[in-house]
Amino acid sequence: MPKSCPTCSRTSNDAKFFGSFCEYCSRDKLSAKLNAVVEVTWCKRCMRIRGREGFVAPAGRNFEEIMGSRFKGYSVHLVKLNRDSALLDIAEMTPDGPLSVEKEIGIRYNKTLCDTCYKKSSSYYEAVVQLRGNPAKMERMIASLERYFERRNQFVSKIEKEDNGFNVYLSDKRMASEFMASKRLKPNMSYTLAGIKGGKKIYKNTYALHL
Ligand SMILES: [Zn+2]
Ligand SMILES: [Zn+2]
After folding, report:
1. What are phi and psi of 148, to 5 degrees?
2. Using CA atoms, how far apart are residues 211 and 14, in angstroms rounded to an integer?
3. Could you tell me the distance, in angstroms and rounded to a whole number, from the CA of residue 116 to the centre of ligand 2?
4. DSSP alpha helix (H) spans, 19-78
5. Closest Cα partner for 46 from 58, 38, 61, 34?
6. N or C: which end of the chain has fewer CB within 10 A?
7. Does residue 188 sit in helix, strand or coil?
8. Count of C-beta atoms within a 10 Å radius of residue 209
9. Considering every ligand atom, which ligand is closest to the CA of 17?
10. How far apart are CA 110 and CA 100, in angstroms?
11. 61 CA distance to ligand 1 centroid (A)?
12. Element (H, E) at 137
């Protein structure tokens, strides 16, 4: 005795069935159940989008992961990314096998400033490198610091020219120490109390380097 779909009257001779509904009606039902619009948080300065572990490049793979987190319990593949929407292949596992549907999902972008851009905009710094000595070496060191920090999503917040060198302000002191270690530099270190946050003393590091 073939099944007959209660919505469209197709029978199981003409179509595959998922439960008591034919595949066409099952797909329609799945599609209707899925949110038509999802929200993505986006940094208006660096254009990166918020993923599960912080802000990431707005690349297709990252969008696919974010869409996956918006449709929990489904397997989600990005077919095409448009300006304000994404064509997704969304599949649900059912007792009769995977049921999948292609659906155009609208993307609503929420503007924000990511942590890095927020700090940049306020010239935030945790460390100062005082460079003194040979001008050409100091310039190479500044370029090298800029490269090192920017590649790791941190930044040089300010460079001051002094009579005998430069003060380079850096956004992250742990990264400043890693930089020194990676270049086998042995700066003279000093610490300045910058304030107290949550009962803990916050120090700014100063690295004096003679090149
Ligand atoms: Zn049907
Ligand atoms: Zn940003």
Report:
1. -60, -45
2. 81
3. 6
4. 23-33, 60-70
5. 58
6. N
7. strand
8. 20
9. 1
10. 29
11. 34
12. helix 135-151
State the Cα–Cα distance between residues 74 and 102, nearest whole angstrom.
13
pLDDT, position 114: 92
Nearest to residue 34, comparing CAs of 81, 87, 90? 90
CA of 12 to the centre of ligand 1 (A): 10
Q: Give the CB-side neighbour count of residue 1, counting CA atoms within 13 A.
A: 2
Distance 209 CA to ligand 1 centre (A): 76
Residue 9: C-alpha distances to residues 2, 3, 4, 123 (Å)? 11, 9, 5, 67
- Ligand number nearest to the C-alpha of 25: 1
Q: What's the gap in Å between 82 CA and the centre of ligand 1?
A: 31
Contact 66, 81 (CB under 8 A): no
Neighbours of ion ligand 1 (CB under 5 A): 5, 7-8, 10, 22, 25
Determine the distance separating the centroid of ligand 1 and the alpha carbon of 30, expressed in angstroms.
13
φ, ψ of residue 64 to 5 degrees: the values are: -60, -40
Tens of pLDDT along the chain (211 residues)? 889 999 999 999 999 999 999 999 999 999 999 999 999 999 999 999 999 889 999 999 999 999 999 999 999 999 999 989 999 999 999 999 999 999 999 999 999 999 889 988 888 899 999 999 999 999 999 999 999 999 998 999 999 999 899 999 999 999 999 999 999 999 999 999 888 888 888 899 999 999 9
